[in-house]
Design a protein that fits this description.
single chain; alpha/beta; 7-stranded mixed beta sheet; two-stranded antiparallel ribbon
Amino acid sequence: FDEIVDESKLKIFKSFILRRLKHEPFQYIINKAPFYGRDFYVDKNVLIPRPETEIIIDILKNKKIESVLDVGTGTGCLAITLSLENITNYVLAIDKFENVISVANKNSRHYKCYNIDFKKINILESLPEEQFDLVISNPPYIAKNELILLDQDVINYEPTTSLSDNKNGLLFFERFNEIYDYIVKPGGKLILEFGGEKQIDSLKKIFNSKIYNLFFYKDLNDMKRILKITKKWRLFYYC
């Protein structure tokens, strides 16, 4: 604070202020956002990591999982944190956009994560070739008609495709139900972030209790935000 700022740095600083006055998120301005105690590169192609998503890491802390599929990886913050916290031996992190994969790769190289593969796959249209012990995702769960309720910082700058499925906010959850047996190994689990209390009844209908065990975790506001799903395996006896 006791140093005189030179003209070039002052010009940059003023440009930052002007961008922020237009409600551009500061994370995009400085190309940096924190997640689980680490900084990740962000730009307009990816959703800014939220504290709520860190709950997924807390759930898995001190566990050892052989293989993980991260669907809609974005910045790669979940996949990279799982690797750096020694929670998993291998992660396949997928996204439908090449420019998003590029950001995730950039973050992975920065943290020297060598057990993560990033691939361009649209989970709504195709599947990975293998099954995983754990599948995680923070999918687009905001309904199209609710986008207008978001803050200017979010709706005007963050990628809409990362926020909404352009339908009722449930499209990805229905897809996960449909493909569960194709992507989750027997005895494995699926952990998803969702849109809070208002989606719970819908999620219970999608993931039928006759087929699945459901466990909800609360966020920092004491609201249910993360769902862990495992499948019930019945033994059939024949006479």
